[in-house]
């Protein structure tokens, strides 16, 4: 009951006599909405901030805990409520009430928790919304997690298929990253041949003794990725003694590298623009003619004799490499364009090369 002049019933209780209640006669008190069924699983409702019932018919035990107190109450069909004996809320001791619960009040300060016995259906009705919310929440989380996992695996499988497709489309040998790292002494500065527009070039030596040149695409060069793909596609389809030979590529982790045959004499511009003049003296008229003829043969192949019609677009002395016999080989096809056999002109969105 309340400390206010007007009495109220506890939750899950109703006036015993509605007529008397309407005349403000509360002497008959309240009764449960549903009568108890002792042997069919009664339960308890937790009510906080109460003055506990009068101890006219009660029993106490100082050694029991709250769980034992509940079990003790359930064993006796006359037990109507229980609580801790320790009103400070430390959970020790047991107090139980038999029969009617007399003079229960709601108090603003210093109230105690009371566990009042109810019909099992009343307890279940209170628990169902919480159970429903818990079930809905669990199912929702499971569905969301399932969807996220499905999206992750679909994207992962697509990425694997795309990567596999890219590698299959290349139709040329694929080198492992560790093999290239070992061949170049882990990309040692001592093995660095130079720096191109899209990344450094290193000299390397494979386990079989073959010398190679490795063009390593810079990770920060987004534009260079297009040139990388272009060069792989074109050089893989072109074969001529005056074109540099692409041995393979490496596409692993975030690394993208092109592996070429190594040209011991470097680029033509190192001879033409030799600072001390010693290299320039090696180019007599016979070698001049041989180099020019080789470049012309390579261009004729690209423009006319190849099954693909290729315009290099970046032909210059630094992109002409010389082998150990000073034979020229056109390199760097990153900016090259492919034309149809009957096509004589084309459009480009980038002004580059020569």
From TrEMBL:
Keyword hit for Flavoprotein: no
Domain of life: Eukaryota
Enzyme class: transferase
Domain Protein kinase: 187-354
SUPFAM superfamilies reported in the protein's UniProt record: Protein kinase-like (PK-like) (SSF56112)
Keywords noted in UniProt: ATP-binding, Disulfide bond, Glycoprotein, Kinase, Membrane, Nucleotide-binding, Phosphoprotein, Receptor, Serine/threonine-protein kinase, Signal, Transferase, Transmembrane, Transmembrane helix
Gene Ontology terms for molecular function: ATP binding; protein serine/threonine kinase activity
Reaction catalyzed: L-seryl-[protein] + ATP = O-phospho-L-seryl-[protein] + ADP + H(+); L-threonyl-[protein] + ATP = O-phospho-L-threonyl-[protein] + ADP + H(+)
Any Pfam family hit: PAN_2
CDD domains: PAN_AP_plant
Gene3D superfamilies documented for this protein: Hepatocyte Growth Factor, Phosphorylase Kinase, domain 1, Transferase(Phosphotransferase) domain 1
Keyword Cell division attributed: no
GO cellular component terms listed in the entry, alphabetical order: plasma membrane
Enzyme Commission number(s) of this protein: 2.7.11.1
InterPro entries linked: Kinase-like_dom_sf, Pan_app, Prot_kinase_dom, Ser-Thr/Tyr_kinase_cat_dom, Ser/Thr_kinase_AS
GO biological process: immune response; signal transduction
Transmembrane segments: 133-154
Domain Apple: from-to ranges: 38-120
Cited PANTHER family: RECEPTOR-LIKE SERINE/THREONINE-PROTEIN KINASE SD1-8, S-LOCUS LECTIN KINASE FAMILY PROTEIN
Name of the featured protein: non-specific serine/threonine protein kinase
Biological source species: Populus trichocarpa
Lineage: Eukaryota, Viridiplantae, Streptophyta, Embryophyta, Tracheophyta
